[in-house]
Write a structure and sequence with these properties.
2 copies of one chain form a homodimer. Chain A is α+β, with helices and mostly antiparallel strands. Chain A contains 11 helices and 15 strands. Chains A and B meet through helix 8, helix 9, strand 13 and helix 11 of A and helix 8, helix 9, strand 13 and helix 11 of B.
Chain lengths: ~400, ~400
Amino acid sequence: MKQIEGGICAVRGVSAYGIKPGKMGIAVIHAEGPAAGVFTKNRVVAAPVILSRERIETEHRLSAIIANSGNANAFTGDDGFLDAMEMASMVAEKLELDPDTVAVASTGVIGRKLDVSFIREHLPEVLEGLGSSPECSLAAAKAIMTTDKALKECAVELDCGVRIGAIAKGSGMIEPNMGTMLCFAYTDANVPADVLETALKQAVNKTFNMVVVDGDTSTNDMVLFTSTCKSGIKPCMESLDDFEEALIYVFTDLAKKMAKDGEGATKLIEARVTGAKKYEDARLVAKAIVRSPLVKSAIFGKDPNWGRVVAAAGYSGAELEQERLSLSFLGGGEEVELVKSGEISTASDLALLKKIMANDEIVITVDLAMGGESATAWGCDLTYDYIRINADYTT
Amino acid sequence: MKQIEGGICAVRGVSAYGIKPGKMGIAVIHAEGPAAGVFTKNRVVAAPVILSRERIETEHRLSAIIANSGNANAFTGDDGFLDAMEMASMVAEKLELDPDTVAVASTGVIGRKLDVSFIREHLPEVLEGLGSSPECSLAAAKAIMTTDKALKECAVELDCGVRIGAIAKGSGMIEPNMGTMLCFAYTDANVPADVLETALKQAVNKTFNMVVVDGDTSTNDMVLFTSTCKSGIKPCMESLDDFEEALIYVFTDLAKKMAKDGEGATKLIEARVTGAKKYEDARLVAKAIVRSPLVKSAIFGKDPNWGRVVAAAGYSGAELEQERLSLSFLGGGEEVELVKSGEISTASDLALLKKIMANDEIVITVDLAMGGESATAWGCDLTYDYIRINADYTT
């Protein structure tokens, strides 16, 4: 397997484009084939989530996706649902597709009526731009950004020639719960919808569901995975393991990009938990560390206050014994061991910890020494800019 | 019942004092009688929590409490436990008490060895100052403060003459879970330890356990409740209801002071949830609202982004239907209804919401219209100062 250029357009049979003239952006992706999706578990769900979920569950295939940024079309009642329907219908009509196979996604402010006239007005320009060049994937990825500062796309080619590509957005209101932020993934492998679904659920749990920016689960989270089947290649492995592994690779890349581009973030935090009795324990500890506002603030300020990491592990709900726990920080190629089997380590060096904390990417490793399970989560530091962005979002 | 002056020293039989010459403070409270306690549910627990919990569970009574600020004595191994033992022994020896009835509490940085020599050196001054004046309660309350900016004490007298008083500290690392931050409560009612325990658990669940500053549950949370029995009055009500209600009154007062004094906070947020099917649903929604970094940032910036409140309700885990939900904001004597039974209300007025958000105390009311249960939680806004304080705590 190797990483390749081109984002979703690297996948045979995918064309895309997008524009973002102001606060609102529109992207369209045209790719026909079997499809699967995972959606937010928030009890308040946006109109496009209701619509797209229903279509995926009924049709098990997609022909296109239309997505807008700048307005979440959430908590907008029946009107919001009709607006989402109209978005899909406009695309279906122009591209001559079955409207029931067009998915809709939205991201932005909650509780404001969607300006459909804006979409009506600018959609022709988007459809005209549809193409399969790397620039077309970039344009679509850019159009769905809100507070994102970095583009998020990734593509790989398996040894057998099958390709997988995806674009994503996400920067704030991020603690995906079963679903995730917006992510549109494609493959040209010749696989049916149920294979896509199995691979998708497993990959999402290990990647996007392990990212926390602020702990707020969105009303609009959605990952859609469509296969164009255009490679003509059935996955080359008996067990589909390589295919699933490749999807996890792509999603891990995007999940890390999401965490690193968390609202106001200056650093990527990776929490690796090993030695857990159960996978669930490892997951709880890893997520508690990257969710903790105190850990995140300390890392922003390069304050060597590692005690907050063990406090977060302690309240995570995981089974642990403080006498067994070991803790180290890694960054810029240097590592410091702070706790060894419950005792402050002789290698503990707060000056070195402060130096490690100055790096852009910091890995925190917690070994629970309770068993053999492990998990990794990603997050970012909590900064003045997070407050600035979110104290003044709608105005 | 009426509120009275004097904090814990308003309670007959309580003497107290404290000093805080620098980053570290020491407080001692001398009051003998039956006692109950609740403690943090963090799996990483500080040495003083282990010691005090064991003593309360064995003796069911206390004679004194010694507390220090500036160092949590948490994750400090066997040495930390010996240090906590020594703190208690010093007090027991000087005041001629049974050391097994002296509780210890600590608050401050985690994972640093306690400077016991500081306590040894300054304890005589504290013991010399022990007294029953209102100033003595203030001195004790002041000595246990860390990043707290406001003193937290409250006392009441029941109609029958029984008094209840408490002091507390807490500003950051606050999402109490079963236990709470440091709080020392006293009464002179003639009641046994099991009555204290029942009243204490119930009151803590409705008050301190409903406060969120940042969502980090401390390793050192502790509430101790001792009766001096010095009023000579057995609670005057057959059912103890008045006694329990008075304790809830005192703890609610302190819980609100804690939320309002949250690290960096400029505003108190009260989330009232009504119409829940089960109490647990009401509790989940209320706490999710005051925990949400996005809601907290919006309130800091007076950004009328109310959609974040319904998003938080949605991911709280509570049973709800978005078609039934109503939402309003109240502040400075004005109220605005934003959502009525799932639809954006005709009374919705973003300019008025912005004006309401400018007040120091903001009440958010969510009616789920699913049943008859309700709950209230308290929190604060998320500000630049929270980051400043926590990016640079140990250095």
